[in-house]
Amino acid sequence: AVRPLVILPDSRLRLRSEPAGPVTDEIRKLAADMLETMYDAPGVGLAAIQIGVPKRVVTIDTSKDENAREPRVFLDPEIVWSSEEKRVYDEGCLSIPEFYGEVERPDRVRVRFRDLDGKEQEIEADGLLATCIQHEIDHLNGVLFIDHLSKLKRDRVVKKFAKAAKRGEAA
Ligand SMILES: O=C(O)C[C@@H](Cc1ccccc1)C(=O)SCC(=O)c1ccccc1
Ligand SMILES: [Zn+2]
Questions:
Q1: How far apart (Å, rounded) are the C-alpha atoms in residues 108 and 16?
Q2: How confident is the model at residue 171 (pLDDT cuts 50, 70, 90)?
Q3: CB of residue 138 inside a 6 A radius of ligand 1
Q4: For 35-79, how does the pLDDT look when each residue is reduced to its tens digit (9 = 90+)?
Q5: Would you say the CB of residue 105 lies under 6 angstroms from ligand 1?
Q6: CA of 120 to the centre of ligand 2 (A)
Q7: Dist. CA 85–CA 80, nearest whole Å
Q8: 3-class DSSP state of 111
Q9: Which end of the chain is more exposed for a tag (fewer CB within 10 A), N or C?
Q10: Catalytic: 136?
Q11: pTM
Q12: Hey, CA dihedral for 37, 120, 144, 54, is it positive or negative?
């Protein structure tokens, strides 16, 4: 089912998510809800905490074509190598709607994770997939892309969302 998104300044976004643990029907249902919610947003990635579940589960689909979807599920993903070369990407976040900022991250990463069959995998990612997986693993550690921006920019967006939350209206 499409689940409601957790939006800044909700403090749950600052939690460190717990290990996903063994692949159970509950984890499979969580991954299915995350993919459905991600496609509905739309987004190219989602971390479980963004639908309020503090577990180290990430879904990503960087295929641009709705008819050729390539859903990926990562359980307990870890970056085991990052390139020296960096790349700047104008990032957004489904939990910080309508705010974008330039973030510099390693251009390529190698990621170890378990898939929904419980199998250990290791992939090397570049381009949008590399940027997205780093953005999602940040979410698992309570880090948001605005934390990589200047303090000035970060304070501005936190103030804006705190005010909107107080007025109880969308940002
Ligand atoms: O908040 C999230 O984790 C989702 C976020 C992940 C992300 C991907 C790439 C760069 C930065 C962050 C998003 O998916 S933002 C929406 C987005 O990037 C997008 C949406 C539709 C089509 C293409 C891109
Ligand atoms: Zn995000």
A1: 24
A2: low
A3: no
A4: 999 999 999 999 999 999 999 999 999 998 889 999 999 999 999
A5: no
A6: 25
A7: 16
A8: strand
A9: N
A10: yes
A11: 0.96
A12: positive
